[in-house]
Amino acid sequence: MDELYIHLRIREVIAETQDAFTYRLETIDGQPLAYQAGQFITFLIYLHGTEYRRSYSFSSTPGIDPYPSVTIREKQNGEISRHILHHWKAGDQVTALLPSGRFTLSGHTTSPRDIFLLGAGSGITPLFSLLKEILHNEPTAHIKLIYSNTSTERTIFHRHLQELVQQFPRQLHIIHLFSNDPDQIVRRLSNLSLEPLVQQQLRYQAADARFFVCGPPEYMRMILLTLTYMGFGEEQLHKENFVVNTAPQLARIGTPEDSSMKNVELHLRGGVHKLSIPGNHNILGEALAQGIAIPYSCKGGVCGSCTARCTTGKVWMALNEVLTDKEIEQGFVLTCTGYAISAEVVIEI
Ligand code: FES
């Protein structure tokens, strides 16, 4: 395993639905892969002479599932997902960045609390990983999985979820919402249906509840706005983004006007790099242009692969769909949309 990249072999490919497949992975060097439930891995894919990077959440749970796995649906991430689904097979070797992401539990508690997992379609992937983690390691938590799909046949992990309900009947309650089912009263989540649903399902103190949400952007926006309106605090709400193209948004926002040179020190595990960067060039772009390999995937402020910590000076982010206000206060920044706005900046990666 070198600094930034890991080399993996596909052990097995498992069909979950007609268009979603799980890829079980193992490291080439036989070392265990360190990751947390809810995190993602970014694959480097070479297609038509170009390197693409795409991030996929783990559907497996460390300590519970024997092999790290990702589950990919055909439409997710467009052409690259299609390429993976049509070409990757057992025995193939793939390269990836080290696992990352903060859609994770920050520790367990022995006090009873409600944990809501809300997912739509392939948004189940990181939630499935978290679900197993909580069931096995936090027996006092009561989990509500609210899972939206078009139909049972399109529901990834449907059978596994039924098995988990049987295995953990006191800890887990699943509400399936099928948009194609004419017999269901609530077929899609809306602000009107979500509020009473959450109120009905709360067993313990509302202030102790946690919510993990993963799905299309408008689905997550509606849920987070509704929960915020209901009085849940930012620290109770966790979201994992589907990566969307933010290039038009970034073009509208533009870059800082200040083009004066800034001294930026990048502290990587491999050492310290001292760069001189114009104030209107983003940190990731300049680092890559100067031959310094730092992690990234979407380059659009959405995936969080490029998260780093600014320990000296100030960085302005043109777009941030990942970091919370608290994380920003703690100095976390995205290098892909981050610009140095003070003369001296130190970034730890
Ligand atoms: S590379 Fe995705 S947020 Fe920066």
Summary tags:
8 helices, Elongation Factor Tu (Ef-tu), domain 3, 6-stranded antiparallel β-sheet, alpha/beta, 5-stranded parallel β-sheet, binds FE2/S2 (inorganic) cluster, 3 domains, Rossmann fold, 18 strands, Ubiquitin-like (UB roll), 349 residues
User: What is the CATH architecture annotation of the largest domain?
Assistant: 3-Layer(aba) Sandwich
Distance between the termini: 18 Å
Order of helices and strands: EEEEEHEEHEHEHEHEHEEHEEHEEE
**What is the CATH domain class of the largest domain?**
Alpha Beta
Query: What's the story with the biggest beta sheet?
Result: 6 strands, antiparallel
Using DSSP, what is the number of strands? Answer: 18
Strand order of the largest sheet: 4-3-6-1-2-5
Protein name: Ring-1,2-phenylacetyl-CoA epoxidase subunit PaaE
Organism: Chitinophaga filiformis
Cofactor: FAD
Keywords: 2Fe-2S, FAD, Flavoprotein, Iron, Iron-sulfur, Metal-binding, Oxidoreductase
Structure description:
One of its GO terms (molecular function) is 2 iron, 2 sulfur cluster binding. The mean pLDDT is 93. The protein is an alpha/beta fold and 349 residues long. It is globular, with a radius of gyration of 21 Å. The protein has a 6-stranded antiparallel sheet, covered by helices on one side. It folds into 3 domains: 5-97, Elongation Factor Tu (Ef-tu), domain 3 (Beta Barrel); 113-240, Nucleotide-binding domain of ferredoxin-NADP reductase (FNR) module (Rossmann fold), CATH 3.40.50.80; 249-348, Ubiquitin-like (UB roll) (Roll). 22% of the residues lie in helices and 34% in strands. The chain binds FE2/S2 (inorganic) cluster.
